[in-house]
Design a protein that fits this description.
The protein is mainly β. Helices cover 13% and strands 44% of the residues. It has seven helices and 31 strands. Strand 13 and strand 14 form a beta hairpin. Helix 6 runs antiparallel to helix 7. It is globular, with a radius of gyration of 26 Å.
Length: 534
């Protein structure tokens, strides 16, 4: 199917709105629009995969898109000069050409350059355009940059000069200069050892802060670490402290279907600052984004120190709503979301695709739109690929953060657009109605009476002493008012109550963590023999 025909079909399927693409996980930036002969033209650079480091993969994809910012239409037949800098060192400098206004480059990082001027170690591969005299993509083959590019952590500044373009008219009298950046995270690996002697490597990738004091508390299902911020950057309004905690799929403490609670300096982050990415078949990724505004709120509530303590706790099991879809080619799909999600903010929706024998479909392309009860489109995503239409789900599963403005009835239109980087000759469509309502309170699983929250709060604030609190819990357990699951006692020499148990009690009293998290602290005290019931 030609690109022109794809766009015609797309206009029939959607009233197109250009929503952010969350599923394909990328890192990059948008250069501000420039006025050129009546046009507002802009440029983006995007690095895929988002959390790329050179020890994870041999190559990355850098996508550069030049477009009319008012219509979002690509400018055609563009010649680019691309300069890439790392810490003011030029590492790449070459000309490239692309016909559709979206230039895709394959980056192959290579370490060990001995040249003082790093760009001298960089090599370029691919075909050169006969007229433009620049490297260009032919078929599925992208131009390649190999050298000291993206081989180290930190920010890479990308200067892109538009040398020429032919739509709406040739632009050759003056180069247009755009400056963008991509960030390569710093990666650190830690080893978790569980009580049953299992070992799990945990990777933490941080974009603009150093990680230290990593710790895993198995009884509390909690990961903690400290982040060291650059104070100068942290004070900038566009600052975002980004971290990615990468866990093996079989690490049971943090798994699909359970809430995640993230605290910074003891202050709980909003859900839309946290993403639990389950799309990989081998690992789960917890992504945390702390903005400048959130840092200011944390400072107001708890004060700011450097480093900041980050704590990630596993929460209650979620109750999901879901809709199933069937397509004419035998494929099926499932779309699910947390039934207790609040409206007025972005809600994570999980899209899962299966073939005729119910196996996950790899490299599937899809698009979707959501309309309200009046038929008005409130959200859609058709992907950002210049070569094909659709959002890519490499392993048959993708997560999309979708803004549902109000409670009510909605319709989702799900469209299979292709597979293996190629669009189908005919798109396949399936629809389903769904309702987003008032979140329902989750049922309490441990039978903790609500008035115990007052006692927990008093204890955490020092109004009630440790001995009084322990005695009150023992009484409640003896009278069967508080039901704590039976556990094997393993008394420790120290009968001191850990700080984290008292903190949990205080956070629970303020509804900052779940009841289950509070009960884990009580279970720990029982296990250690600090609380006993005859």
């Amino acid at each position: 199917m030609s690109t022109k025909l794809i766009l015609i079909v797309c206009s029939i399927l959607f009233v197109v709105s250009f929503s952010p693409v969350h599923a394909q996980h990328h890192s990059g930036s948008l250069a501000p629009p420039i006025d050129f002969d009546g046009l507002k033209v802009a440029l983006t650079t995007i690095l895929f995969p988002e959390d790329f480091t050179s020890d994870d993969s041999n190559n990355a994809n850098l996508s550069i898109r030049f477009f009319d910012s008012e219509t979002n239409a690509n400018i055609k037949s563009v010649t680019y000069r691309v300069e890439i800098f790392h810490e003011n060192n030029l590492v790449a400098n070459e000309y490239f050409f692309d016909e559709d206004g979206k230039l895709d480059l394959e980056i192959k990082p290579k370490t060990g350059c001995q040249e003082k001027e790093l760009w001298k170690c960089t090599k370029y591969y691919g075909e050169k355009h006969a007229i433009a005299g620049a490297y260009y993509a032919r078929g599925d083959s992208f131009p390649v940059i190999q050298g000291p590019v993206f081989d180290k952590s930190g920010q890479y500044n990308i200067k892109v000069s538009i040398v020429g373009a032919t739509n709406p008219k040739t632009m050759t009298t003056k180069d247009l200069l755009f400056e963008t950046f991509v960030s390569i995270p710093q990666k650190e690996i830690f080893l978790i050892k569980t009580a049953n002697a299992q070992e799990y490597p945990v990777s933490i990738k941080s974009y603009n802060s150093k990680i230290s004091n990593f710790n895993y508390d198995e009884l509390a299902d909690k990961i903690s670490y400290e982040i060291h911020l650059d104070n100068e950057h942290a004070m900038q309004h566009d600052f975002i402290s980004r971290h990615a905690v990468i866990l093996q799929k079989d690490f049971s403490s943090f798994k699909q279907g359970y809430d995640l609670n993230v605290f910074v300096q003891g202050i709980k982050l909003e859900d839309d600052s946290i993403e639990f990415d389950i799309s990989s078949p081998d690992q789960n990724i917890i992504r945390t984004n702390i903005t400048h505004d959130e840092l200011m709120q944390i400072e107001d509530k708890a004060g700011i120190s450097n480093p900041l303590k980050v704590e990630i706790l596993s929460g209650d099991k979620k109750v999901f709503s879901e809709r199933n879809f069937i397509f004419e080619n035998g494929f099926s799909a499932n779309v699910s979301w947390d039934s207790n999600s609040d409206v007025g903010k972005k809600i994570p929706f999980t899209f899962s695709f299966f073939d005729a024998i119910n196996k996950p479909v790899n490299e599937v392309l899809f698009a979707y739109s959501i309309t309200d009860s009046a038929g008005k489109e409130i959200w859609s995503n058709i992907g950002t690929g210049g070569k094909y239409l659709g959002v890519l789900a490499p392993h048959g599963i993708s997560q999309e953060s979708i803004l549902i403005p109000t409670q009510g009835q909605y319709k989702i239109k799900l469209i299979l657009t292709g597979q293996n980087s190629k669009n189908f000759a005919e798109f396949l469509t399936s629809t389903a109605d769904f309702k987003i309502g008032q979140p329902s309170m989750q049922q309490k699983t441990d039978g903790v009476p609500s008035w115990i929250k007052n006692n927990a709060g008093w204890w955490s604030n020092g109004i009630v002493g440790d001995q009084e609190f322990v005695q009150s819990i023992q009484f409640l357990m003896k009278e069967k008012i508080l039901n704590i699951p039976a556990t094997k006692t393993n008394p420790s020499e120290s009968q001191e109550i850990p700080t984290w148990v008292k903190n949990n009690a205080g956070w629970w009293s303020q509804d900052l963590i779940s009841e289950r998290d509070f009960v884990k602290g009580i279970e720990f005290l029982v296990n250690q023999g600090i609380i006993t019931v005859n």
